[in-house]
Please model this.
Amino acid sequence: MKSILGKNLGNYRTSYRADMALLNSRNKKIGMVILLLVIFLLPMFASNYFIGLMTLCIISSIGAIGLNILTGFTGQISIGVGAFLGVGGYASAILTTSMGYSFWIALPLAGIITAIIGGLFGIPSLRLKGLYLAIATLAAQFVILFIIRRWVSLTNGTSGMVLQRPTIGDFALSSNTSYYYLSAIAFLLSAFYAINLVRSRTGRAFFAVRDRDMAAQIMGINLFKYKVMAFAISSFFIGIAGSLLAHYTMIVSPEFYEINVSIQYLAMILIGGLGSVFGSILGAFFITLLPVVLNIIVGSLSGILTDLSHILSAFEEFVFGAVIILFLIFEPGGLAHMWSNTVNYFKKWPFSY
Amino acid sequence: MDFFLQILVTGIVVGSIYGLVALGFVLIYRSSDVLNLANGEFVLIGGYVCLTIMTASNLPFIVALLITLVISVLLGFSVERLVIRPLKNAPVISIIMATIGLASLLGGLVHMVWGHRTRTFPQVFPSEPIHFGGLIITPVYLWSFITVLVLLVTFTLFFKFSKMGIAMRAVADDAKAAMSMGISVKNVLAVTWAIAAVVAAIGGTLLGMINGVGPIMATIGLTVLPVVILGGLDSIGGAIIGGFLIGIIQNLAGGYLDPMVGGGLKEVVPFIIVLLILLLKPYGLFGKGGAERV
Model:
């Protein structure tokens, strides 16, 4: 049977191959093609500023997907994302600027270095859970940033380091548009990997660990292996995001990686939807664009009311907190859940069952 | 030797304030399993409110403090009612995130009302330092130490003998059993949050008198986390002892090791201790680790 909107209501797959396919319906295939077209044709229509914003959103999405693998899939809370972004950014900066490697080597290496450090900090997760793990990762945040600040010979301390945009042969990706394409490719690869990870043996082990780690252990899942693996995989993504971000802003400095960044990433996956790749992307866009939208609103209000710009940063903080609390109370499933509710409503429309 | 003793005294005084703020953490964690990451903002609001009342109205300090405490009680009640109660059965991460969101919301509110400038408290205690042999102690330090001791005794008695205190212990022990014995868990939680806000406001006022009131004060909310981890998240005595220990260790590290690494160690040492404690003795010095069932 088909709904009025032409969707199949029910499973009509006749082979395992069809069952395993990622794009298992015609609508999904069409949607994917449209999405790809939008992503790759966007620079033709949008302004330079808008492309810059989109680049930031896309890079944040990579980080948010990484954090969601750890927190949403495996259930291990981390308040140390900011510092791990910093590890990725600094690894890339040191490899390219101080050691003279090319960006194309530095990018994966930055991911791997962050994965190793993330895995190390994941080891306590074997004994700690919930609140205690949250505090351990918070401690990691402070300790890592302290090391970055004080290891001046390696990181140049508080004054930060300057990076170059990557080059392909003689062509430097110095324009916003070219860097946008680079980030978009990295983003698509990450999303594709994460979606497949969920369906694999490893992903299922992650879910089992999240739901009840002791029960998972009894069923033969090696807790140590999978917890450390979750930390490492998640940190790899975050390291890649950190490296891309560092080459985009072309500067790294300890104050870019403070605790508030960690909180922003946590907010992304919570508002987007825990345990959902699509949700991480929605949340990353939401949180990255929130200050921009607020800025526009306050800017347009300042014509009516007197000068509001001096309280803008405080107002952003206020709204950020309010949005988090409202989502937690009224839509704990996040934007992804809202989206799937909407889709499900129209799937059977005009009938409710 | 004098240098060492001076550091020790400073450590004890700072530690006593840590202990005070940690007490607020522990109270809430014990009765509702919530880690209140907005505690720093409670401290901040307490400091600002007391300062504003004093500068605006010329009321004597003690009256201003009492009004501040009443406002804190209201703050505690409303936070519990509006944010915590709706999330009663939510997973740990939601509650952690809710208190982080609350911290951001309250912080934003404070900055909108009072701005980012650090303000100095009007003189309450005499500023001439008191000499104990070779040691120099400013009266503010002495008073904060005394306040903390008084509060500690008060809370111990409160939990031991008062009806509400016993009800709070019952809820902390087992909320469902307490409910079936006729204790209103809702009211107990509301009172817990109010007490935590009051304790934080006292901490904020004392801190404000020492360092001035400014946005930086909210960081104590995070600095105090190592204290509660060291003492054990569910131990009131542990919070106080942990406060003293962290205060002393922090100041010793700041005094002796900072010149070697170039500063900043004071803020990080507590977190290094946290990592060690969590690796070696995850439930802290005095906390109870529960057995886990599948």
Observations:
- Chain A has a mean pLDDT of 88.
- Chain A has 15 helices and four strands.
- The longest helix of chain A spans residues 223-249.
- The radius of gyration of chain A is 21 Å.
